[in-house]
Every structure is written in C-alpha cells, then in structure tokens.
Amino acid sequence: MGGEGHADGTVGKALDVLEMVADQGGPVRFSDLLEISRYPKATLYRLLQTLVNQGMLSQDAGSGAYRLGVRLVRLAHNAWAQSSLAPLARPHLDALAAEVGEAIHLAQIDNGHILFVDKRKSTDMFETLAQAGRVAPAYCTGVGKAILAFLPQAARDKVMPQQSFHPYTPATHTDPASLLAELGIIRAEGVAFDREEHERGIISIAAPIQLRSGRVIGAVSIATSTSRHTLEELSALKPRLLHCAAAIGAEAENWQFPEIF
Amino acid sequence: MGGEGHADGTVGKALDVLEMVADQGGPVRFSDLLEISRYPKATLYRLLQTLVNQGMLSQDAGSGAYRLGVRLVRLAHNAWAQSSLAPLARPHLDALAAEVGEAIHLAQIDNGHILFVDKRKSTDMFETLAQAGRVAPAYCTGVGKAILAFLPQAARDKVMPQQSFHPYTPATHTDPASLLAELGIIRAEGVAFDREEHERGIISIAAPIQLRSGRVIGAVSIATSTSRHTLEELSALKPRLLHCAAAIGAEAENWQFPEIF
DNA sequence: GATTTGGTTCCATTAAGTGAAACTATGTCT
DNA sequence: AGACATAGTTTCACTTAATGGAACCAAATC
C-alpha cells in the first residue's frame, strides 16, 4: 500500500481531483490538471464536469479554469458546527484569550496533519501562519506535538510516516527519533512547546484535549512571538492552559450524541 | 419535497448522501439516512463507507453515527480563499464597517440560495441569523433581492422556482408576482431593502456587486435592528454602500485570472 | 430463548466509468 | 492567408465497478 493512491472507486477519484484543484490554490486550467494527475484526458474531463455539475467546482466563464465551488463553503459551515469541537470550545477559548491576551489556537488532527478549527488573535501586530481552516504539519507545531504525544500507539504509528520532517527553521525536528524522544517528555510534562520550530520568532505552549477515556480529540495552544515573551514566561501559563483544555474535554464528554429527533 | 434528483453518476449520489448528512445538522444513524434516502440499503451503506474512507464523513466510534468530516473544513478554507470574493472584498468591508458602525454582510448566490461569505458585526448585542458560511433564502433578504434583481433574465427564471416563499414574518413576500414587482423597483433604485422580511426587527439595505459587463457576482448589505435605526436612516447610507459595492466590483474586474505558476 | 431492529456481507446482474483516438475550436507562427 | 500547434470536447467498443435483493450477523427487546 503506497504513499497515496487509496482512491476507492469513482467517488475517490472525483474527490482526488477536487483535492488537486484545492492544492493549486487558484484557478487551474484543464491541461494543468491533466499534467498533474495520472488520469487520462477523457476521464479527467468527465470527472471535472461532474464536479462542476455538482457545484463542488466552478468553472470560470471566460478562461474555462476551474476553482473550488462555493458549495464547499456551505458544507464546511455545517461540518465546522457539527463535527469539530470548535463550537463547544468557544466560550473557553474566549475566556482564556481574555485572560492571557495572547493568540489562542484550537486544532484537531486530520489525516496526519494539524487542522486549525478556531483561533483568537491577540493583536494583528504579528500574524501567525495559522488561520481557522488552515492546515499545518504535526511534527513542528505545539498543538501537533501535543496531540501526537497522547495518541494511542497504533494511531501514532500510522501518523508518523506522514510527517515530512521538512526543516522550516534550525529548531525543527528532522527525524522521527528526535521527535519521538520529545513526545515522551511531553507525555511526562502534560504540555508541548513549540520552540520556533515552524516559524522563526513564533513560540507556543500547547495542551492536549482529552476525554476521560484518555482519547485525544484536539489541542489548545497559546502562541506568542519571541519579541514579546520567552518560553519561561509561556511556561508560567501552563496551569491556566491545562485548566482550559480540561474544561473543553469535560464538556466534550457529555456531547457524544446530541440526540436528534 | 424532493425535487433535486439530477444526481449524475456515482459521484452525484455520494455527494447527495453527503448533503443529507449535512442537512441533519448532527450525527445521523444509518437507519435514519436509509429512511430519508431512496437508496437501497446496500448501496447507501457502500456510499457511506466510501465517504468515511475519504474523510468527508466521520463515524462516531461508539454509536456508529455519521457526521461531516473535518476534511471539508480544510477544503472550504481553500474554497473561501480562492473562489469567493471574500478575500478581495475584505479591506472594503473593513472600511465600510468602521465608517457606519453597523453589521455588514457579504453574500453570493449559490444554487438559488444566498450564501454569506463574510461579515462584520457591529456589536454582539444582537445577533443576526447570518454567519459566514451560512445560507439564507434569496427572496426575503436584502442581499438576495439585490442579486435577484440584477440577474440576467435566464438566470432569474431558473432561480425563482427555487424560492419557497415561506412567510417568515408578516412582511415576507409570499408569491413570485409581488417579488418580481419589487425587483423592478430595486433595479430602478440600485439598492434593495429588507423590511423585516426574514427576521422580525432586522432591516437592511443591500447593493449588488457588479462587473463592468453588468454581471452580478454578489452583494453587500448594511444590517441593523429596528430598535437602533429606521429604514430612512439606512437609506441615508445608500451612497456610501454603493461606493463600497462599486469598489469591490472594480477590484474583481482585474482579478479574473490570478496567473498561477 | 425467541423475535425484532440495526447493521454488514454476498454475488449474479447490469449499468457506469473508461480511455485511445478522432474531432473541433482557438490561438500563433511564417 | 494558410499551416500548425495547442487546448478542450466528443465518440464508442470495452472493462470495471456499482447495484440491490436477499441472506447473514449482532445486539438489543420481548
């Protein structure tokens, strides 16, 4: 089983194409996609047609270029509301943000990558890479490491090979061994630090959000810049952060099944 | 109630199922979906499996209930950034919001319904139904009517039958004829008013965002509550609103094809 | 211990997706 | 203008994948 291609059936292929368009980050022409994908011309063409038909993609009138359709925005609104812990964590993040006055991030893991589902920004003075809906690598972010550390062995084994270990900064982990070593420490301490591993000058302290069963369902972090605070100063916020994470976890507990009728 | 139905191929069906889950607004069990959908058991089962596999749905560990997957949030982030006019309109909305101090909405039309793609809220004192990503009917919102009014005949004919004309308030249009009549007035005036047609106590003034070619690509509105302002007061903001809409339209003009590399 | 309810798997049937190649529409070079 | 490439669309014999009725299994419920 290779690195990628678990495209089950036609639906898988269609979604694969959708993802390709998403990755391009802008309008893509047919021939560009043809080059990137391994699908033959006609097949790709039909898949695109179908996706456009379905409103998942929209086609530029003039150029014929493809971009993601607005239907996705609508679906995601629902997804965010019903599937992420964002709505539930909201008040807790607000409280934490008000108290510490720094940027707060809420993240979940998605297929080996970190997905930011909500955030509060301290001030627009500096801008972290992260925004709600954005993705980031797990191995070099506070939230990522916090989640990885508390993942059950099996899940971690599945996720580790998905990490690229690209050295964003001199402080970035560049191999599984050193990361695993740190994960051990994180398990012991209960929080993870990002020591400018993803972005130079940006540091954070992160805590996993867990259910009583121990299952990790996400992470919260307090992020700041080195010009504003030191790691030690962040460290001082540990109790407050853990409290917030615990509060969110507790609330997630009795939420399993919002009974519909 | 169905209507709908133009499910092309397997992909269409899968997306149809996805939408069904989205509509439920929460975890759904297999049998619930089985009841709602016209698909046979085995077929529905496989479709769900595929979607879960693909991360478009996630399945609750304990109950086996389905909900929308986080992958959607990720995709939507891209969709929002690349396919809506939100990023481009951002500074203009900020400016307008700062100036008028009321709630600003930016919307596009999607399959006959209004999709809010961005907003600025005046104060959290009152909460409009609208939020980024949310949908609302076209026939009873300011932005909706502004867009409908300037749509080319053919497009409008396609969209009108999709309106439900549900009477949210006493002021809501309840038939195509009265709506069409107002659309004429809106075309003449250049702006649309929401006179508590969707939500009691909420009024707005909306302007279409158009390209030089005349094509409508969205609408901006200034919304407020009747307790804060009258329609006449809103009317006074018309020049400022039109200016904002024009500015966004002008910017959208030279944006057609952001040249990728 | 028997029966219902909710979910999963089988497998012959059939429909749907496939893709090489032919075709059309649009530039672009000489 | 004619020739030539380039980008996108359609065709059609072929192959694969989706279908769904029915059987099956598991866990609640009688």
Which secondary-structure class do the elements of chain A indicate?
alpha+beta
Shape of chain A: globular
**Largest interface, with Cβ-Cβ < 8 Å?**
A-B, 61 and 61 residues
Helix content of chain A: 40-55%
In DSSP terms (H or I, runs of 4 or more residues), the helix count of chain A works out at: 10
| Element-level helix/strand string of chain A | HHHEEHHEEEHHHEEEHH
Q: Quaternary arrangement of the chains shown?
A: homodimer
Count of individual beta strands of chain A: 8
Largest sheet composition of chain A? 6 strands, antiparallel
Could you tell me how far the N terminus lies from the C terminus of chain A, measured between alpha carbons in angstroms?
41 Å
Order of strands in the sheet with the most strands of chain A?
5-4-3-8-7-6
Protein described:
The structure is a homodimer of 261-residue chains. Chain A has ten helices and eight strands. With 261 residues, chain A is α+β, with helices and mostly antiparallel strands. In chain A, the strands form two sheets. Chain A has a six-stranded antiparallel sheet, sandwiched between helices. A two-stranded antiparallel sheet of chain A has the order 1-2. In chain A, strand 3 (103-110) and strand 4 (113-120) form a beta hairpin. In chain A, helix 1 (9-24) packs across helix 3. Chain A is globular, with a radius of gyration of 20 Å. Residues 1-5 and 257-261 of chain A have low confidence and may be disordered. Chains A and B meet through helix 1, helix 3 and helix 4 of A and helix 1, helix 3 and helix 4 of B. Chain A binds a DNA duplex (30 and 30 nucleotides) through residues 9-10, 13, 29-31, 34, 39-43, 45-46, 64.
